[in-house]
Amino acid sequence: MTAAKHKKAVIFDFDGTLCNTTPGILDTMRKTFEVMGKAIPTAAEMRATIGLPLADALRLLAHLDDEETKLAAETYRKWFPHYEPAGTTIYDGVTETLAELKRRGVRMAVCTSRDRQSLSLIMQPRGLRQFFETEVTGSDNIKAKPLPDMVLALLCRMQLSADDVLVVGDTTFDIEMGNAAGCDTCAVTYGNHTPRQLREAMPTYMTGNFRDLLTFI
Question: How far apart are CA 72 and CA 37, in angstroms?
């Protein structure tokens, strides 16, 4: 494993990294495809798209045209409040690790394909908002993961260099994004992509324990 380097900030993916939102996402996707009369993909197929922008994931899963994709995204957002928040849990060790990072003066931000409204719907009642100074979401119309643009936007906003930052995520999209931005990356293996997939994306670190972040910075 690469020796740890001191970092001034950590940029976190949200789904599959800080919170287990997968049950709610899959239930909302199933409802969306049911309402639209489309074949329902397998759980594995749906999990593989988590981390992509919503419209891209829905299009890919059901081979939708532009008009159907727009309707699918609208349907998903309609049903989201019924399924996702109640089906979301914070991963073990996340809250206390974020609190310790904040105590140490490490700056933190969220980088997610989720839109800002749905992110707030989950973060706010779970007390996670307090740890993050800023966020980039799918609502910001920045080129999506795995391109580096979302991380680069945060580096600019936070006035940090790539060497100052560790990017943490559970998918190859997150790791490829962080690597492309020139940052060190950490893949967490308890989320939506397998350890084998994550290893192929060449993260700086890999762990199945969120608390290990305290040793990586």
Answer: 11
Give the pairing type, strands 107-111 and 184-188: unpaired
Distance, in Å, from the CA atom of 183 to the CA atom of 165, rounded to the nearest integer, reads 6
Question: 110 has which bridge partners?
Answer: 12, 135
pLDDT at res. 83: 86
Kindly state the tokens that stand for 136: 């980039």
Contact 132, 116 (CB under 8 A): no
Phi, psi of 176 (to 5 degrees): -65, -40
* pTM score, whole prediction: 0.89
Measuring CA to CA, how many Å separate 206 from each of 186, 210, 217? 5, 10, 13
Cβ proximity of 50 and 122 under 8 Å? no
| Cα gap 31→197, rounded to integer Å | 28
pLDDT of amino acid 163 = 97
User: Which residues, 6 or more positions from 160, have their beta carbon under 8 angstroms from its beta carbon?
Assistant: 8, 9, 107, 154
Rounded percentage of the chain residues whose pLDDT exceeds 70: 98
Q: 67, 65, 66, 62: which is closest to 34 by C-alpha?
A: 62
Spatial CA neighbour of 141 closest among 168, 166, 115, 172: 115
User: Strand, coil or helix: what is 135?
Assistant: strand
